[in-house]
Every structure is written in C-alpha cells, then in structure tokens.
C-alpha cells in the first residue's frame, strides 16, 4: 500500500530516480507503467542493488552510494526518497532543491515538513496510507514558497480532507496518548488532536 501510494503521485517524467531503491519494486512499477524514459536506481547497499538488477535487468541504471551523491551532476525530473527516517531524508536533501520530490519519512514527518518548506519547497500533496497496521506519510514537493500552520506541520497540509487512513491514525494516537503520563508535551499533543477533530466535524 505504501509503494502504491507513492506510485500514484508519480507523473510521467523524463528521468526518474529512486533513492534507496531497496529491491527495485517501485522502479519496476514505474517502468511497467511507462511513467519514465530513464530510471535511476540507487542504494547504499550493494546487495540491494544486485537484487534490483535481478528484477529490472537492463531497463534501469544502477548506482551504489549514499543518497544523491552517486548521481553526480544528474538532476532527475522526479526523485523518490522513502523508507528512511526523517533526519536521514533531510540530510540527503541538505542544500538540494529538486524539481519534483516525493518522500515518505518513517518518522519525524512534522520536522521534515517544517524544514523543507523553510528551505524553499512547497508541499503540493500530503497524505497518509496504512499498511499492515502501520501508517505512513507521503508528500510531494516542488520548489516554491509556503506558510504552514502548526496543525499543518504536525498533521499534514491537507489534514482537513477527512481521509479514512488519517482519521484512523488520529484516533489511534489519541487513544495511546490518553494512557501515557500527562506531561506538558503529551497534553499539548492531545490539545492539537482535539483542535483537528473540531475541523473534521
């Protein structure tokens, strides 16, 4: 479901790159759908690249290395970075403004939103998908300017769409927080959830 959610945000493009491609499943989906003329698969793990090669053969180009570094001067039209922590994604993107970026941070999505918008990106899509009882944020960004409210930073730019996966995660988070120690931080989180719930009525 997570890969499908990412795939749905990929539009027809000339050069597509999957940073941290793992076994190449997303690259295969892109190739099979004819969404890219050129597909670049990168991963820090040589073993993963070998598995991607076994899956994709000569349909893609392969790079072993950290983040965007192995691409050198190549600037993909569309870049996906997923399956990594938010801080790792921010490290990869430090000083980089890519034309069309799709990311799915494993954690710290709020920090990723705030930092990338501050660094010259605009979030044009922001959704939640559920897979095996886990929830994932998926964002698409382009260069631009944007001002986010606190609720948008914490819950996503389009939290008020009232989408099913988002609502389920919100209810789960609220249920968990009510069992936690009532620290100032947890009280603040509950207050924000209550404010979102008012928006969704």
Describe it.
The chain has 201 residues and is α/β, with parallel strands linked by helices. It has a 7-stranded mixed sheet, with helices on both faces. The longest helix is centred in the C-terminal third of the chain and has 17 residues, at 184-200. The chain has helices at residues 2-8, 25-32, 46-56, 86-93, 109-118, 150-155, 164-177, 184-200; strands spanning 13-19, 36-43, 61-64, 78-84, 101-105, 121-131, 134-143. Strand 6 (121-131) and strand 7 form a beta hairpin. It starts with a helix and ends with a helix. It is built from 8 helices and 7 strands, in the order H-E-H-E-H-E-E-H-E-H-E-E-H-H-H. The model has no long low-confidence stretch (mean pLDDT 96). The protein is elongated. It folds into 2 domains: 2-147, Rossmann fold (3-Layer(aba) Sandwich), CATH 3.40.50.150; 162-201.
Q: Helical proportion?
A: 40-55%
Strand/helix succession: HEHEHEEHEHEEHHH
Could you name the CATH homologous superfamily of the largest domain?
A: Vaccinia Virus protein VP39
CATH class of the largest domain, anyone? Alpha Beta
- Calculate the terminal CA-CA distance, rounded to whole Å: 27 Å
* Beta strand %: 25-35%
Largest sheet: 7 strands, mixed
The CATH architecture designation of the largest domain is 3-Layer(aba) Sandwich
Look at the helices and sheets and give the structural class.
Answer: alpha/beta
Topology, number of strands:
7
CATH fold name of the largest domain, please?
Rossmann fold
Shape: elongated
Which parts are unreliable, with pLDDT below 50 for 5 consecutive residues or more? none
Number of domains: 2
Average pLDDT, rounded to a whole number, is: 96
How many helical stretches?
8
**Rg from C-alpha positions?**
18 Å
Sheet with the most strands: spatial strand order: 3-2-1-4-5-7-6
Oligomerization state of this entry?
single chain
């Amino acid at each position: 479901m997570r890969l499908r959610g990412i795939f749905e945000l990929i539009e027809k493009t000339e050069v597509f790159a999957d940073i941290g491609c793992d076994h190449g499943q997303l690259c295969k989906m892109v190739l099979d759908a004819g969404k890219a003329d050129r597909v670049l698969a990168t991963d820090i793990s040589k073993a993963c690249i070998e598995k991607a090669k076994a899956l994709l053969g000569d349909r893609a180009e392969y790079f072993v290395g950290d983040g965007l570094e192995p691409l050198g001067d190549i600037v993909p039209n569309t870049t996906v970075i997923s399956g990594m922590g938010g801080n790792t994604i921010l490290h990869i993107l430090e000083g980089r403004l890519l034309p069309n970026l799709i990311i799915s941070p494993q954690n710290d999505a709020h920090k990723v939103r705030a930092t990338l918008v501050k660094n010259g990106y605009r979030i044009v899509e922001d959704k939640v998908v559920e897979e095996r009882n886990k929830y994932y944020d998926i964002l698409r960004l382009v260069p631009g300017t944007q001002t986010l409210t606190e609720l948008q930073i914490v819950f996503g730019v389009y939290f008020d769409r009232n989408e099913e996966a988002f609502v389920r995660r919100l209810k789960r988070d609220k249920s968990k927080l009510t069992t936690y120690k009532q620290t100032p931080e947890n009280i603040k989180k509950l207050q924000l959830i209550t404010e979102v719930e008012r928006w969704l009525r």
